[in-house]
Amino acid sequence: MSSIMKIENLQAKIGDKQILKGLNLELEPGKVHAIMGPNGAGKSTLSKALVGHYDVEITGGDIIYKGKSIKDMEAEERALEGIFLSFQHPVEIPGVNNAYFLRTALNAKRKHAGKEELNAAEFLRAMKGHLEALGMKSDMISRSLNEGFSGGEKKRNEILQMLILEPEVIILDEIDSGLDIDALRAVSEGINKMKDGKRSFLVITHYSRILDYIEPDYIHVLKDGRIIKTAGPELVSELEEHGYDSIEED
Amino acid sequence: MKLSSLKDINTEELATVLDVKGRKALLDKFISLGLPSKKSEQYRYFDIEKLLEKEYKTLNYVPQTIEEGEKIEIVDGVVVSAPKGLRIYYEACEMIDTEHFDPLYYLGHLLSPLTIKIEIDGDTELELLHRFTTSDTLISYRIVLYNQANRHATLYEEFEHEDIENTLVLYGYDMHIAQDSTLRVVKMQSMQDKSYSMVASHKVNVAKNANAVLKSFDLGGGQALQLIKVDLDRYAHVDAGHLLYLNENSKRGTVSQIVHKGEHSTSKQEAKNILDGDARGIFDALIRVEHSAKYTKAEQNSKAILLHEKAYMAAKPQLEIYIDELEASHGATTGQLDGKQLFYLQSRGISYVEARKMLVIAFANTLIETVKDTRQQERIKTAFEKVFYEGHKELV
User: Which of A224, B190, B247, B257 could hold B219 in an S-S bridge, CB 3.0 to 4.6 Å?
Assistant: First the structure.
C-alpha cells in the first residue's frame, strides 16, 4: 500500500546537537504506528520535525507527505494540509478564549479547504457532541486556552482539537502522560473514533500502557536517532520483558 | 505662553504671571521643585523640555451654564453638561497635597485657581468625556472628585478631539475617597493625533477602610504621561492597572508613587505594555511604606511586550520601605511574544500574523477583563482592537 507520509533518511538537530541521524519511516493510510524508544532517542524531535517546530533544524533527508516535500513548509501550512500534533505539554495561553481559538483554527482549516466559515452558533452546535464524548464540561471552552487546566483536561482539549480539525496524519506525543485511568479511557475513545481506515496515527510513547487502548499495527523502535526495528504488536511484550538494549537492529 | 519662560523670572513676577492670590505656599512649592527637565527623575524618558519650549495660546476659562446631559462633558477645560442632580461646580481647591513629587501638579493648580468640583453622594456610575477643540493651545484644568463616606461609585473617563494639533493638555484630579467608600476610575484614552501632548497629574487620598480602583487604558498617539500620587490610610486599598499600547514614535506612560501611611493598607499595581514601532513606554513606579504603615501588603508588576526591535520600555518599579512588618513584592519583565504560544497556535493552522494578533490581544485582555462592567469591558476591547488593527493593517 502506498504511504501517506514517507520520511527519508531524515537528519535533524536542535541547537548544536544532531539528534535524528538518518531516520526512515513510512506511514500507511489507516494504520496506527507506534514509536517506542528510550529517553533521548529522538522521539520528541521526530514529532517536532514533522510539524515544523522552530527548535528543529533539518540538516538532511526529506519528509514527503501525500507525494510532496513538506520539509520547508511553515507549521501552519502543514497543519492546514492535515498534519496534527497532540503536544506532550500543551502551553497555557491566558487571555485567549478556548472557544475563540478553536473556532479560529477550524475556520482557517475550512477556508483552506474552500468551505464556508462557521459562525459562533454553528460552531457551538458542532462542538456539543465532541464535548460530551470526551466528558468535557461546556465551561472548558469558555475559559482561557489551557489556563489552569489539569493534565487530563489539557489532553482532552488536544483530542477535542483533533476531532474538530479532522487531520489525516495524527501524531500523539506521550498522549498518556499525566492521565488517570478515566481520562486515558476518554482520550483513547476519542482517538479510536477517528480511525476511519484512511487516517494514519503516529503514537509516540515511552510505555506500552496506551497501546492497550489504541491498538497499533506496527511498532517501530527508535534509538540514537534512527529506527532500528519495525515489527508487529507482538514486539511490545518483548520490549516490556527485555527492554530496549535487547533489540537487535534489523 | 511659553512655559519654559517661567524659570527665567523672579518670584514676584511669577506671582503676577500665575495670578497667585493668596496661594503663595503653592508657588513656593512649585519653585522649590522647579520646572521639569530631562534631568528630573519623573520626566527622564518623556522629553518634557520640548513641550515647555513651545509657544501656546492660552484660553480664558469662563464657567458657563451647565446643561443637563447623560454624561459630564468638559470641553477645553470647561464643563458644558452633566447629569441631572449631580453636584458639580467651580471652587478653589482647598486640599492641595503639600508633598506631591510633580512640579506640574503645582503648576496645574496655579494655572487653574478655580477647579471643577464633583461631589459623588450615591452609589452611582458616571461618565466623563474630555473634549478638545483648539490647536496650538495650553489647556489647563483641574478636577476635584469627592466621594462621600460609605458610597461606591465608578467614573468612566474618555477623551475625544476635534482639533488638538500641537496642543498641550495639563489636567489632573485631586480625588478624596472618604472612609468605607469605593471609587473606581476607568480611563480610556485612544486619541490618535500624533502632535498633541498631555500631562495628567493626579493626587488620590484613600481614607480609612476605603478602596481606590484606578484603571487606565492608554492606546493613544503622541506624548502623554500620567503622574499619580496615592496616599493610603489605615486599611485602605488601591488597585491600579495600566494598559499601554503604543505605535510609531509615541511616548507615553505612568509615573506613580503609592504611599502607605496607615497600618494594614494594601496596594496592587499592574502594568501591561505593548510597544510597537519606535515607541517608548514608561512605567516608573514607587511604592513607599512609611514607619506608620505596619502590616502593609504591596504588590507591583510590569510586563512589556516589544513588537519591534526599535521599541523601548523604561520600566522602573521601586520599593522604599522603612519597616520590617510587611509583605511586598515587585518586578518587571520585558520581552517578545512567547515563541511556544505562537507555535502552538500556528500548529493548528492559524497564520503567523493572526497568531501574533491573538497573543497581543490576549495579553491586553487579561487587564481589560479586570473591569467589572462587561459593557465597558467590551467597549475597551473594541477600542483596543480598532487601534491595534489600524497599526497592523496587514493583519486584517
Answer: B190
Question: Rounded distance, CA B37 to CA B30, Å?
Answer: 14
Distance CA B270, CA A136 (A): 33
Q: A97 and A36 share a domain?
A: no
β-partners of residue B77 are none
Nearest chain A CA: its distance from B134 CA (Å): 39
Mark which of A138, A167, A196 sits at the end of a domain. A167
Q: What is the pLDDT of residues B169-206, one digit of tens each?
A: 999 999 999 999 999 999 999 998 888 999 999 999 99
Interval B3-21: pLDDT, tens: 888 877 777 777 777 767 7
As beta bridge partners, residue A8 has A62
Cβ within 8 Å, pair B358-A80: no
Residues A62 and A9 in one domain: yes
**CATH code (residue A34):** 3.40.50.300
Residue A200 lies in a domain: no
What's the pTM value of the predicted model, to 2 decimals? Answer: 0.85
Whether A3 and A37 share a structural domain: yes
Domain of residue A9: give its range.
1-82+170-182+206-250
Predicted confidence (pLDDT) at residue A102 exceeds the cutoff of 80 = yes
User: Which amino acid is residue B179, in one-letter code?
Assistant: Q
How confident is the model over B272-294, as pLDDT tens digits? 999 999 999 999 999 999 999 99
Q: State whether A17 and A125 are in the same domain.
A: no
- Contact B395/B389 with Cβ under 8 angstroms? yes
Among chain A, residues having any CB pair with chain B shorter than 8 Å are 51-54, 74-76, 79-80, 84-85, 87, 90-91, 93-96, 100-101, 104-105, 108-109, 112, 144, 161, 165
What 3-state DSSP class applies to B97?
coil
Name the more confident of A174 and B143: B143
Q: Smallest Cβ distance to A96: which of B349, B351, B358?
A: B358
Helix (H) / strand (E) element for A190: namely helix A181-193
